[in-house]
């Protein structure tokens, strides 16, 4: 084989390798089905926000993973967990008489507990939400909804038709993320709870235990008063 042919083959191989590397970089990590599995409903929201452009949505979600995927989450101390749970229960009980104040407290609590777990500070709402979406994609929209309800002025809420039921739904959606953030680590015995006993307590109108388990939601639709 001549020297010229060998050089030509080396050049062609180099061009092919460079093209392949550039294609992989352009696609980024965890594209397509991988991102869809990881982000679930957040994937669909990102696509909708980009007017159906899946590639643009995937670039955005890939960037979130690159920024926050390696975030080291801190466990809560038992005393911290109990304090957060007590405040959430108090906000739930307050909802019946003052739904707007209750959703504002839920918004503050989510920001605080996320910060305590090692997510960006609550003063950086968008960045905190972005980080939470990487690690709690299936529940983070509850935070988005309660934050929006908490920061909507009373007159704007009336004009937009947002009543007590809308705020209640936002509060309930936010509770799922709150429970994810405050629950103990898997090896912590405090994470075990009697879900059957809690359901019975909730159905009977009695307060269910909050230590290490899901928090009760005593308010139902009949109790909600229109604002």
TrEMBL record:
<protein>
    <recommendedName>
        <fullName>Secreted protein</fullName>
    </recommendedName>
</protein>
<keyword id="KW-1133">Transmembrane helix</keyword>
<feature type="compositionally biased region" description="Basic and acidic residues">
    <location>
        <begin position="183"/>
        <end position="200"/>
    </location>
</feature>
<feature type="transmembrane region" description="Helical">
    <location>
        <begin position="6"/>
        <end position="26"/>
    </location>
</feature>
<feature type="region of interest" description="Disordered">
    <location>
        <begin position="183"/>
        <end position="227"/>
    </location>
</feature>
<keyword id="KW-0472">Membrane</keyword>
<keyword id="KW-0812">Transmembrane</keyword>
């Amino acid at each position: 084989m001549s020297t010229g042919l060998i050089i030509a083959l080396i050049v062609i191989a180099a061009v092919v390798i460079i093209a392949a590397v550039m294609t992989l970089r352009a696609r980024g990590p965890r594209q397509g089905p991988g991102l869809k599995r990881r982000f679930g409903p957040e994937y669909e929201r990102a696509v909708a926000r980009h007017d159906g452009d899946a590639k643009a949505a995937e670039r955005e979600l890939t960037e979130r993973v690159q920024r926050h995927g390696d975030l080291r989450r801190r466990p809560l101390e038992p005393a911290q967990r109990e304090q957060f749970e007590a405040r959430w229960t108090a906000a739930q009980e307050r909802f019946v008489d003052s739904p707007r104040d209750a959703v504002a407290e839920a918004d503050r609590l989510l920001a605080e507990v996320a910060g305590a777990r090692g997510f960006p500070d609550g003063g950086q709402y968008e960045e905190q939400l972005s980080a939470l979406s990487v690690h709690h994609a299936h529940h983070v929209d509850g935070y988005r909804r309660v934050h929006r309800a908490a920061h909507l002025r009373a007159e704007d809420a009336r004009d937009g038709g947002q009543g007590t039921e809308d705020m209640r739904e936002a509060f309930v959606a936010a509770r799922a993320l709150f429970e994810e953030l405050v629950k103990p680590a898997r090896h912590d015995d405090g994470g075990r709870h009697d879900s059957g006993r809690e359901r019975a307590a909730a159905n009977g109108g009695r307060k269910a235990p909050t230590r290490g388990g899901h928090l009760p939601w005593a308010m139902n639709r009949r109790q909600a008063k229109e604002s």
